[in-house]
Design goal:
mainly alpha
Length: 100
């Protein structure tokens, strides 16, 4: 279970409750910041249903991303960042200096 291997009982429960609270509150923050939030003045009670639909979509997206992406080993991450992202960053830097 990763960093939670040494924990059991109440400390482990706190880790789990924290993860569940993040799953409940992070979509609300994301919807409020990036997807218009809850616009009560626009269409009254229907805005709550619209917000609930957006919430379900974001939660499903978060769960799908978390559950379909495997853990990456450190050597895989280092290889990716050195051999893929470093050339991309160099090209971006050159383009930024040129003015594109």
């Amino acid at each position: 279970a990763g960093v939670e291997t040494e924990y059991s009982g109440p400390p482990y429960a706190l880790f789990q409750v924290t993860r569940l609270m993040l799953l409940a509150t992070l979509p609300v923050l994301a919807i409020t910041l990036f997807w218009g939030g809850l616009n009560w003045a626009a269409n009254g009670p229907l805005s709550i249903l619209w917000f609930a639909l957006k919430y379900v979509v974001v939660v499903v997206l978060f769960v799908l991303i978390r559950n379909t992406n495997p853990r990456v080993r450190v050597d895989q991450a280092v290889r990716f960042f050195w051999f893929v992202m470093t050339p991309v960053a160099a090209v971006a830097l050159v383009l930024a200096l040129v003015g594109y």
